[in-house]
Design brief:
By secondary structure, the protein is an alpha/beta fold. Helix content is about 45%, strand content about 20%. It folds into 2 domains: about 1-135, 2-Layer Sandwich (Nucleotidyltransferase, domain 5), CATH 3.30.420.10; about 135-175. It is globular, with a radius of gyration of 17 Å. It holds the Pfam family rve. GO terms for molecular function: nucleic acid binding. This is IS3 family transposase.
Amino acid sequence: VWCSDITYIPMKRGFLYLVAIMDWFTRKVLSWRLSNTMDVEFCIEALQDALMRYGAPDIFNTDQGSQFTTPRFSGILEERQIRISMDGRGRWLDNVFIERLWRSLKYECVYLHAFETGSELRAGLGRWIAHYNERRPHTALAGRTPDEAYYDVPTPSGPGLTPDQMANSNAVRRAA
């Protein structure tokens, strides 16, 4: 199951919109795009990139935003026989994994920097998303990163880590 959502990203002057596509099970960010408008085009670009790189999911979940309900967007999913799942109106908890991604991204990256330009923002988000996918362990993934979970890399001690093992694993990753 994949999910997608759009959030706004404040900058020193103004803001841009960010769309991301995430694998629900592993929390891996599969694709993302920035735009200065909320049109469907940047959502389609992110979707096509994810489909090209990772194949098609069984189910694609979004909110009921106009970008995701357009025939142009939903038609791509229907062509590939991907089941469309849409959250209830105003029910952010239905897409909680990507909402949590937005919180982490904003508090760990965006709010710590006053990005001046779209290019600076794109580079900063790229670094943070690479770190999130490749180096940031998740308790829900038994201490693995989203990439390790997506590519089914086993944890050093098997399926689950104790809190001490998790702390040591995090310290090793930070030192590397």
